[in-house]
Write a structure and sequence with these properties.
InterPro entries: DegV, DegV_C, DegV_domain_contain. Keywords: Lipid-binding. GO terms for molecular function: lipid binding. The protein has eleven helices and 13 strands. It has 288 residues and is α/β, with parallel strands linked by helices. Helix 5 packs antiparallel against helix 6 and helix 9 packs across helix 10. The longest helix is centred in the middle third of the chain and has 15 residues. It starts with a strand and ends with a strand.
Length: 288
């Protein structure tokens, strides 16, 4: 009989409530600010991290989840009698975390040849960030709870990440430029002129879909881009940061256009905010 565990990393931005109630295993990114190091989701919540960012002149950095950390987790669940672990993890082109999960499984099997055919790890590269795979994590955990088989859960998760798109806007380009997501010169000019890029995340890639002049037009333009690409009738989510008013405006506009409300809201945590900044808004959806 299958005994299945879902795991993910803290850049999935699932809530602590879902993590606990759905028995999801979380591996957390380390965050460095100068000579101080923190563990995301452990040493602070999102609001506390936003305040730390506001008081820090530099740009915080993250470090990957190591193969050693994954191997320790595999050992734990193997001893507890699990047959299958399903991991849905951060974009492999933005972090080595996914590759480390694969390496850890190879090392684990070398140390436990008796586990072959008894213990399997299914690591899935989300090719994206935040709720784009956080949603798949939560739905996969619900499928485990409902008694679905491994093959069905893995197929669902892979199908979702294959078709999931994010349109979002960072309200300051300071962090995106420092992390290399946007050229520094373009970020400087954009901030000075009030030009906001609508970023598209899909299949590993972060690109600029279009630009908007002025913050007041951001919500409308994101909604328009989403409406052009979304598979109507499928669930969508709102991603946001430290500004709940913008979150609510985004949800209201999408509900007006689509005729149904978002299924969830994803507030970006430290691992995402270090690259996007604390103030963002956007929509996560399945493309048609």
């Amino acid at each position: 009989m299958e005994k299945i565990k879902i795991f993910t990393d803290s850049a999935s931005d699932i809530t602590r409530e879902n993590e606990k109630s759905l028995d999801i295993e979380m591996v957390n990114f380390n965050i460095a600010m100068g000579d101080r190091s923190y563990i995301s989701r452990v040493d602070f919540n999102n609001e506390e991290f936003y305040r730390l960012m506001a008081g820090y002149d530099g740009i915080p950095t993250t470090s990957q989840v190591t193969a050693f950390e994954f191997q320790e987790m595999y050992e734990k669940f193997y001893k507890e009698g699990y047959t299958d672990l399903i991991g849905i993890l951060i974009n492999s082109e933005g972090s080595a975390t996914y590759q480390n999960s694969l390496m850890a499984y190879k090392l684990f099997m070398e140390e436990h040849p008796e586990a072959e055919e008894k213990f399997r790890v299914h690591s899935i590269d989300s090719r994206s960030y935040t709720g784009a795979y956080g949603y798949a994590v939560i739905e996969a955990a619900k499928m485990v709870r409902d008694g679905k088989c491994v093959e069905e859960i893995v197929a669902f998760a892979k199908d979702w990440v294959d078709h999931c798109v994010i349109y979002f806007v960072p309200y300051t380009l300071k962090y995106a430029s420092k992390s290399g997501r946007i050229p520094s010169a373009a970020a400087f000019v954009g901030d000075k002129l009030g030009i906001k890029p609508i970023m598209r995340i899909y299949d590993h890639m972060i690109s600029t879909a279009l630009t908007v002049r002025g913050e007041k037009r951001v919500v409308k333009k994101i909604a328009e881009k989403t409406m052009a690409d979304i598979e109507k009738g499928t669930p969508y989510m709102i991603v946001y940061g430290d500004n709940t008013e913008i979150r609510d405006q985004m949800a209201e506009e999408m509900t007006r256009l689509l005729g149904y409300a978002p299924v969830d809201f994803y507030q970006i945590g430290a691992a995402i905010a270090v690259n996007a900044g604390p103030t963002v808004t956007g929509v996560i959806f399945k493309e048609k």
